[in-house]
């Protein structure tokens, strides 16, 4: 009798230890994902520091406009609870940045550490910036996007582009480029409408009519709907701010293949969704329902498990 209950005791202890080990493993795998993200940003920083030690020479400027509803969907996907600032004017593209670029590489970046962003310098154009160069990622510092763009890219442009030789002229030039090469207008004057899907060639053909073949089309994958979304149009310019071929630029994702003459990371054999405001609202709605389901499930799951554990302990100790 005595021997039987010691056996049961050790059996219970073994189970408990196994349970603890499982919990530890789950925790560690979550941490390693966060570490991967941290590593990615550290690498970006290192890349920047490497370019700092070399020179700030670059070949072209990439003027990037992004589609707010895709930016928002990606931001919300990245972390639970993320919300967006969207431009007041619906169906309007927004500026992401103006990036000095050397062929076959990224950057140069962070060319002048001592030239810090100061909001006072752009007060005259702040209202226009708030609409056209809006920081969609709500919850990040108010001027975070502008500070980041200035310190990472603007300080490099300022070294070689006369029209961008100060913080004010850098951002003001960005706004003027936004008027001159408006993706909003180009699409409005074509059959490309938000809320529909298109072939890569269709989008390229429409843009090519206004811009010549001097742009890159960037897509992002939506991990919930599994669609590929139109994300950015990057326009290439020479140092006099005239249109220039994008051949030789690096795309952020490694899916990039220079398919004939279309510079893109989008998959050629899959339609490109150009999401509308309603598309975004619908996705947010579905996401809320799913989160509720998931919460209810884990709640139920925990109750059931505690019950099972109690039963087990009861069985062992009685
Ligand atoms: C770096 O910025 C400072 C202003 O903070 C400026 O005086 C200096 O000339 C800049 N250096 C270069 C190399 O552009
Ligand atoms: C793009 O436009 C140029 C004229 O600007 C034309 O020569 C070229 O064939 C067009 N490319 C495509 C793929 O339509
Ligand atoms: C989750 O549970 C609550 C009650 O606990 C219920 O009102 C709600 O409808 C449930 N949500 C879903 C999506 O099942």
What's the structural domain tally? 2
Can you tell me the CATH architecture of the largest domain?
Answer: Alpha-Beta Complex
Stretches with pLDDT under 50, minimum 5 residues: 253-259
Q: In CATH, what is the class of the largest domain?
A: Alpha Beta
Morphology call: elongated
What sequence of helices (H) and strands (E) makes up the elements? HEHEHHHHEHEEEEH
Distance between the termini: 12 Å
GO molecular function, one term: RNA binding
Family: Belongs to the RNase T2 family.
Active site: 96, 149, 153
GO cellular component, one term: extracellular region
Question: In words, what does this structure look like?
Answer:
With 318 residues, the chain is of the alpha/beta class. It has helices at residues 2-53, 68-78, 126-132, 144-160, 167-180, 183-188, 200-211, 277-317; strands at residues 60-66, 94-101, 196-198, 215-221, 228-237, 263-264, 272-274. The protein folds into two domains: 47-275, Ribonuclease T2-like (Ribonuclease Rh, Chain A, Alpha-Beta Complex); 276-318. Strands 1, 2, 3, 4, 5, 6 and 7 form a seven-stranded mixed sheet that branches. Strand 4 (215-221) and strand 5 (228-237) form a beta hairpin. Helix 2 (68-78) packs parallel to helix 8. The radius of gyration is 26 Å and the shape is elongated. Mean pLDDT is 88; it is low at 253-259. One 2-acetamido-2-deoxy-beta-D-glucopyranose (NAG) is lined by residues 205, 208, 212-213, 261.
């Amino acid at each position: 009798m005595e021997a039987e209950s010691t056996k049961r005791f050790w059996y219970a202890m073994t189970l408990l230890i196994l349970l603890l080990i499982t919990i530890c493993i789950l925790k560690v795998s979550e941490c390693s994902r966060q570490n991967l993200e941290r590593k990615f940003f550290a690498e970006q920083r290192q890349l920047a520091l490497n370019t700092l030690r070399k020179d700030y020479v670059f070949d072209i400027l990439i003027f990037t406009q992004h589609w707010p509803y895709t930016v928002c969907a990606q931001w919300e996907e990245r972390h639970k609870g993320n919300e967006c600032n969207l431009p007041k004017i619906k169906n309007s593209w927004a500026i992401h940045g103006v990036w000095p670029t050397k062929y076959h590489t990224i950057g140069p970046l962070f060319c002048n550490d001592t030239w810090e962003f100061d909001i006072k310098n752009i007060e005259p154009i702040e209202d226009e910036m708030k609409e056209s160069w809006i920081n969609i990622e709500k919850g990040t510092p108010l001027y975070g996007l502008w500070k980041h763009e200035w310190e990472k890219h603007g300080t490099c442009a300022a070294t070689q582009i006369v029209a961008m030789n100060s913080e004010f002229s850098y951002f003001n030039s960005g706004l003027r480029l936004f008027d001159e090469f408006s993706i909003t207008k180009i699409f409005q004057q074509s059959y490309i409408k938000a809320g529909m899907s298109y072939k890569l060639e269709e989008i390229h053909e429409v843009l090519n009519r206004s811009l010549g073949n001097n742009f890159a089309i960037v897509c992002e994958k939506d991990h919930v709907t599994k669609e590929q979304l139109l994300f950015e149009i990057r326009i290439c310019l020479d140092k006099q701010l005239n249109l220039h071929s994008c051949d030789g630029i690096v795309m952020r994702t490694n899916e990039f293949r220079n398919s004939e003459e279309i510079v893109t990371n989008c998959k050629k054999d899959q339609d490109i969704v150009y999401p509308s405001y309603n598309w975004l609202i619908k996705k947010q709605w579905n996401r809320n329902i799913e989160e509720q389901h998931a919460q209810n499930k884990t709640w139920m799951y925990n109750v059931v498990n505690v019950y099972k554990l109690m039963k087990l302990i009861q069985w062992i100790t009685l």
